[in-house]
Every structure is written in structure tokens, then in C-alpha cells.
Amino acid sequence: MRVENDIIQDGEGEQTLSAIMRRGRTFREILLPAVVLILWPFAVYATSPSASDTRPRIVAFGDSLTAGLGVQANESYPAQLQRRLNDLRYPYRVINAGVSGDTTAGGLRRVPWILNNKPELVILELGANDGLRGLDVDQVKHNLQQIIEQLRKAGATVILAGMKLPPNYGPDYTTRFEAIYPALAKEYDLPLIPFFLDGVGGASSLNQADGIHPTTEGYEIIVEQVLKVLEPVLSKHTHTP
Fold first, then answer.
1. What CATH number matches the domain at 24-238, 3.40.50.620, 3.40.50.2000, 3.40.1190.20, 3.40.50.1110?
2. Is 235 designated active site?
3. Domain assignments of the chain as residue spans, ordered by start
4. pLDDT for 51
5. What is the separation, in whole angstroms, between the first and last Cα of the chain?
6. Active-site residue identified among 64, 100, 102, 198
7. Which tens digit of pLDDT belongs to each residue from 3-33?
8. Active-site residue (options: 142, 204, 210, 237)
9. Edge to edge, what strands does the sheet with 57-62 contain?
10. What is the mean pLDDT of residues 60-84?
11. Is 239 one of the annotated active-site residues of the chain?
12. Known catalytic residue: 210?
């Protein structure tokens, strides 16, 4: 796998979001207007399962990395995950609830819409935009706590996707930000995807021209990473009376 020179890679092969600060302006430019949030419920309604579809639902809840910005709708990670689950004969319906530019605060406001889909499981991928804006780490963590608590109170199982930042924000901020996810996973006993973009972030052949959003092939890798955490949860749910 090709990795750009400015990617941070430790001895475990774990990659951080990279070159993003060099493209920080580009990243901010892709944050869509607030009108996206206004229109989002209608988009979800249009793609949500019909009343006749009784399969339990997995909601992919996130930002542009979940929405699939820049790829065809059927190549986003939720769509590819649906096909993999079908192949593996897991009787679940995956709903794409990604909104480009979303933050943890925006996600918190969207929780009622998420719950309208009556999810059995929620894959929560939020926080990258907060970190890249340098937002207060304690507030980001608090927002995620509120999202997790509301989802769990409604009976949904939450799988948390971790995120990492480039070193440009300094070691204190990046360390505190990245520690949010394992800390929340421990606090709430959640299955954790350590780094959502592991194996994809920074690889030019797996990302679009902006260097930020995965290609179809990049999402294929992400889906396999998600499945490593998701499958044990699905197996447990499937065998629970």
C-alpha cells in the first residue's frame, strides 16, 4: 500500500489522518451548508426500509466519511456493508445516516431522527470535523456521551468508530482528542473500531483527489475493518433468544 511521506505510522502500522492539515482549507471547503441538515430527514425517509421490510436495522451514523461524499451512493461504506452482510447471510438492513460536514453537536441534534428508524445497532462515526476545527475536546467528548446515552436508552447497541488527527495541532490536543474514543468505549463497554480509516488514510490510491475521502476501493477496506468489530456483535444478537 502506498503511503504519502507525511503520514504518521507507528510500529503497529497504525495510520493517522494525514496531509489533511496541508489540505485543511480544502477540508473546510467540503463542509456543506446547514441546508444539508434541514434536508437530511427527507433523504433518510426516501432511502429507509419500507414497512414491509421487517429486518432489524443497522444505522450508519456519521459525517461525509459515512455519507460517501464523492462516490456513487451504492459504493458508500453503508451500501457496501449491506452487500457484504447479504453475502454472509446476516438478515440486517443498513441505513446510511451520514451527513457531510456533520459534527458531534450536529449529530446530537439528529439523534431523534436516527431513533425514528428504530435501529437495533448504530455504527457511530463522528468527531473528525470537530477535531479538524480544533473544537474543545471536553465538549466533543460530552456530545458523544450524550449521543451514546440517548441511543442506548432507546435500546440500540452502539459500535463506536475512533478517529485520529494529524500532528499539526500539537501533541497535547491530538493526544487528548484521540483518547476520547477508547475512553468512551471503556466507560460504556462499547465495541470499538480503533481507527475508522485504518489502512486507507493517506494512501493516494485509496483516496479521491482531495486526499481526504476514500474511493470505492478505499471503502471496501473500511467495510472489512468494520466487519471485524461488527460480526461478533451480530453473531451475539442472532443467537440471543
1. 3.40.50.1110
2. no
3. 24-238
4. 59
5. 43
6. 64
7. 333 332 333 334 444 444 444 444 444 444 3
8. 210
9. 93-98, 57-62, 121-125, 157-161, 192-193
10. 97
11. no
12. yes
The catalytic position among 18, 63, 198, 213 is 213
Q: What is the pLDDT confidence band of residue 50, given thresholds at 50, 70 and 90?
A: low
Q: Are 126 and 111 in contact (CB under 8 A)?
A: no
